[in-house]
Structures are given as C-alpha cells and as structure tokens.
Amino acid sequence: MKNEIIFNLLKVHQRIENACKTSGRNPADVQLLLATKTVPADRIRIAIEAGETLMGENKMQELRDKDSELKHLPIERHFIGHLQTNKVKDVLKYVSCIQSLDRLNLAEELNKQLLNQNRKLDVFVQVNTSYEESKFGLEPSTVLDFIKKIKSYETLNIKGLMTIGLLDVEKEKMIPSLRLLRTIRDEIYKEGIEGLQDLKLSMGMSQDLELAIAEGSNMVRIGTSIFGNRFLGKEIWNENITE
Ligand SMILES: *Cc1c(COP(=O)(O)O)cnc(C)c1O
C-alpha cells in the first residue's frame, strides 16, 4: 500500500511537470491538493510523510473522523465539498480554506462565525462552469457580482475560483468548462478591483489534470490517481449522500 501511494504520487508529479513543460508554465505555480474523500487517515498519512502539504475533504464527518490522526501532521486542510450552512461552525474547526463558497447566505454565515472567532479564512468561489444541474457552484454570469458583494466581508480572503470541470472521454468536450474559469478570472481582473488582482484557479482532477494546467490551473485536486478507485457505488462531488 505504502509503495503504491508513493509511486502514484511520483507519477502525478511527473504528469504535472510534463503538463507545465508542454504549456510553458512554471511547475512552482501549480500546487497539488490531495482529494481524500473516503480515503482512510493512514493512507493520507503516507502521502503527507512523502511531502504533500495540502488536502481537501468533502464532508464534515470525514474531517472529524480523521482529525485525531492528522491534526499533528504538517498538512493544510481545505473543504472542497458542498457545505451546508448549519455545518459551517463545525467545519471551521478543521480547515483553513473553503473552496466551495457558492452562495451569499454561506458567505454571511462564514462571516458571522469568523467574527465570533476573531479570525480570517481563505476562500475560493465555486463556479459551475459546466452548466450541469447536478453540480454546485455559481452560474458563471453571476460570479463578478457575487465577488463584489462578498468583498465587503473582511473575514474572507478571496484566494480564487474553483470549478469541477465537465468530465468526458473526449478531450474537446472537457476544455470549455476549464477555459471558462480563466475567462471569468480575467473579467474580474479587468474591473481592476483592489485586492482582486491575484486570483488562483483551482481546477483539474485525475482525468483532466493536463487540460486544466494548459488552461491555467494553479491547483489540481487529485484523488483517484493517487489513492485508487473509491468503492462507493456512487460518485460524491457533493453532499447529496446523507451523512
Ligand atoms: C473527488 C474530488 C476531486 C478528485 O477527483 P479524482 O477524479 O478522484 O481525482 C477533486 N475535486 C473535488 C471537489 C472532488 O470532490
């Protein structure tokens, strides 16, 4: 198990490097985040001991269950799943960043809890760039307005935009939803809003890592290619599965 994870990590880093080379980008501008839903803590630990520093969970329950084994390790934990407002307080115990900020009442609740705790939090605004109904995220045309609104919350550090691209066997079908995230970012840049001149793009998964890097990704979120297939019978991009 250990060797397999380490070998897979090497392969993923190689893929990132190759993709950067192909698109003339600096590998230092692309971070790897371990997508660890359903992955037991002992496996995650192997990746951390191999030098990984970023992980993302989709569910509050999993953050809690794995916390005792992971909290002393040098790993930054992000939340990348759909976040229900009533779970904000709990999730904040474990993470330093929420990548799935997708609505105003969630921003309000985060702000409220963060003010109570006298702290700030990194956030990515999640955009539904594939226009799939099954996916969470803001409708692309509403992102600029949304960002202008949440900018007034000083508790939120807006780090960038996140999307789950359209997955397909055909490459040509996967590119537009990745490219769109960059277009939206560039449109935000054009507004020249102070504090919003360096936004990162969190996009790219096991299947579309190379394409995402070619489209400007700064953070790829990889699960399957590192930890193997998840045996759930059902895919969980979101929290539609009840806890
Ligand atoms: C599961 C998940 C990933 C990783 O997907 P893989 O195909 O396993 O690499 C990335 N982002 C989010 C939001 C996820 O839920």
From TrEMBL:
Entry's Gene Ontology molecular function annotations: pyridoxal phosphate binding
Keyword match Mitochondrion: no
Alanine racemase N-terminal domain boundaries: 47-229
Keyword annotations of the record: Pyridoxal phosphate
Cofactor: pyridoxal 5'-phosphate
Pfam families: Ala_racemase_N
SUPFAM superfamilies: PLP-binding barrel
Entry-annotated residues carrying N6-(pyridoxal phosphate)lysine: K37
Signal keyword on record: no
UniProt family annotation: Belongs to the pyridoxal phosphate-binding protein YggS/PROSC family.
Function: Pyridoxal 5'-phosphate (PLP)-binding protein, which is involved in PLP homeostasis.
Designated name of the protein: Pyridoxal phosphate homeostasis protein
